[in-house]
Design brief:
Number of helices: 14
CATH topology of the largest domain: Trna Endonuclease, Chain: A, domain 1
Helix content: 40-55%
CATH architecture of the largest domain: 3-Layer(aba) Sandwich
Radius of gyration: 19 Å
Number of strands: 7
CATH class of the largest domain: Alpha Beta
Number of domains: 2
Order of helices and strands: HHHHHHEHHEHHEEEHEHEHH
Amino acid sequence: MRKWYEFYSSSSIEIKKVQQLVGQIPWGHNVTIITKAASIEEAIFYSLKTIENGWSRAVLTHQIELKLYNRKGKAITNFKYTLPDPHSELANEVLKDPYKFDFLTLQEKAIEKDIEEQLVKNITSFLLELGSGFAFVGRQVKLKIGDQDFFIDLLFYHIKLRCYIVIELKNVEFKAEFAGKMNFYLSAVDNHFKAESENPSIGIILCKSKSKIIAEYALRGMSQPIGVAAYELVNAIPENLKTSLPTIEEIEAATQRSIK
């Protein structure tokens, strides 16, 4: 209790506001946060996310260890120029960089198809890493354009942003031409799937690595909202966390409630 008070009283943030926030999460969560967070801002971030997502202590600990606070909203995007405010800010906060695919049993040299198959197989863990609001639509989603067939790696719908999100996986460093292909896909998705009341579709290009300046130049001339981020294949997900993750049925039920 003393450490909790000393941690939060060192900030200019009114202590009553902090009490209202942390009072909504279990004491064990609070202990985890104050012992692992490096700043008041980081502690408040994880407290808010715990409330928003209903994280167990195991999931909270995992997110802190994966440094979610430092990755949130860090992807390179052109949202400022392609989406209206405040939608652009909300969309930017949805993305992170890098993405941690720690639940995949893959080697660094895994090909895109292998990564895609594992992500779909471990969809619950993948949704946890993507963040709240994502609903899985499909893999290798077919688009018929003219007399040709095109296939999207992964297609999601974001309930809060009210838009489709196209994810393309690349097991190489980001190349400028990837942005042009994504721009093409987003135009097609908007034409084939988007309802008039929904927001423009967003693209996320996940690459093994990226050059910030090349990504920024590539996105500058695109008309569609696109983000570029790296992914990392790290250690396997801890056994104690697996039991804390929601099942696919629970995610589907929550998605249906949100839609209603």
